[in-house]
Amino acid sequence: MNRLTFGVIAGVAFGALSVALMVPLSFPDKRAALIGAFVNRFAIGFLTPLVTLPMPAWLKGVVIGLLLSLPDAVITKAFAPIVIIGCIGGAIIGWASGKWAI
Q1: Which site in 2, 9, 13, 89 is 20 to 30 Å from 19, CA atoms measured?
Q2: CB 4 within 8 A of CB 99
Q3: What pLDDT, in 10s, does the model give residues 23-70?
Q4: Comparing C-alpha atoms, which of 45, 60, 57 is closest to residue 6?
Q5: 5 contacts: CB under 8 Å, gap ≥ 6
Q6: Could you give the CA distance from residue 13 to residue 26 in angstroms, rounded to a whole number?
Q7: Nearest CA to 89 among 60, 55, 65, 59?
């Protein structure tokens, strides 16, 4: 599978998973929170296969996941769940893209 297709699929999957994890939680503006989470996680999934960095694919995913998760973590002050899920998701997507994306 080419990297662009893989990135779109990974982004939609990671975004949907993150939104599903957030549905039971309550927020002052739940719609905005869910859309923001989806866009952030989609960006991690989409960019990880497309970016070229001189490091293993899984580590590239961790770096991208960390960099894209930090702004949301700072704004919400929910550092651990946002950064940890972003880094784990990035690592998995990076590893998978290293194996299956051409």
Answers
A1: 2
A2: no
A3: 999 989 999 999 999 999 999 999 999 999 999 999 999 999 999 999
A4: 45
A5: none
A6: 22
A7: 65
